[in-house]
Design brief:
Blueprint (H helix, E strand, L loop, with lengths): L15 H26 L6 E6 L2 H10 L6 H7 L4 E7 L2 H12 L4 E8 L12 E9 L10 E11 H14 L6 H35 L1
Parallel strand pairs: 2-5
Antiparallel strand pairs: 1-2, 3-4, 4-5
Helix pairs in contact: 5-6
Pathway: Purine metabolism; ppGpp biosynthesis; ppGpp from GTP: step 1/2
Protein name: GTP pyrophosphokinase family protein
GO molecular function: kinase activity
Length: 213
Amino acid sequence: MNIKNQSNSTIYGPYQVHLNDILNELMGRLNTASEAYREKTGEALFEHLNGRVKNEASMIDKCERRQLPATPYSALHELTDAIGIRVVTTFRDDIDRVIHIIESFDDCEIVERKDYIHHVKPNGYRSYHLILSMETPYEDVCGSVPGHYFVEIQLRTIAMDTWASLEHQVSYKKNIDPKRAELLSQELKRCADELASCDISMQTIRNLIREKE
């Protein structure tokens, strides 16, 4: 297929046809790894995962905020989250297990790590982010074959994910009185710390159960 002859009507240009295939391939591998882990241990590797290709309006908005032209090169080379996967685990140590599995993928190179679990954001946000460069059979925006596409993976526990969902809802509220906004920020930070403490307690309980087995 000559990709240069394909439609160029979106910010992803002719490369858009490959993005869902790449997403589904990587999610399929993670699901397969989870099933293998369950068969071996009787436990789930993660609670659930979901993925998305960032919609065009969101990508254009991000390009504008970064003062980048709204082009396929910006969306797929300058920025790294056109393809995104979120893995939600039950326990904190499962995050390390999923990372280890991702590290074993021969065609994926981890080009960036952001550990917001040990280096918590000021607002209380906790998560572990990976940026992968995945080798694919498709031509990429730089004209290379095999091509490389970025994938952002966020890993977090159920507690971290619950907090992030709440914070996301609050952050999009408009016309909030400044004093109330400050109170909300303080309460969100307090909730984040309490949920982090629960994560540690749940991990301790799991470890104690395993010691008895």
